[in-house]
Amino acid sequence: MNNSSPLPRSVQEIADVIGRDAALMLVDKLPRAYSPCHPSGKVILYVPQQVRVDHPLVELLGIDLATKMVRAFGGMMLQPAICTALRVSERDEAIRAMRASGVSVQAIAREFRISDRQVRNICAAVKEIAEVVANDNITNIAAA
After folding, report:
1. In angstroms, what CA-CA distances link 117 with 28, 90, 92, 128?
2. What region, left, alpha or beta, does residue 83 occupy, with left being phi > 0 and alpha being psi -120 to 50 degrees?
3. Is 17 contained in some domain?
């Protein structure tokens, strides 16, 4: 996971309380509400004012992190971003790393439940960017 990518502010507020990995895991596990205004889904989380061991927040985070959430956000309705772009970026990095280490395109496609073509496109995108940067560097050196 790329820990240098900035989080949306709504998720960063949660991460400041329970940590980045736990916040991202929480957002991923929460159910999405779909509407015409939010066709890709919206996450809504009510944080109770008191934590009970049978509360779904405890099941997701464990008692320690759920208690921290209650102390920080008790009684609030949170609407954290779903972090789609961040997740896609992390997935693409993982795909490129797997391919660079010799894992087959087919195995990667099965692992991430995407097509072979998409794996090849993701890996090719980096090569194209590298070629553009290399060409720009050659042009700058020649101009100097």
Report:
1. 26, 18, 13, 16
2. left
3. yes
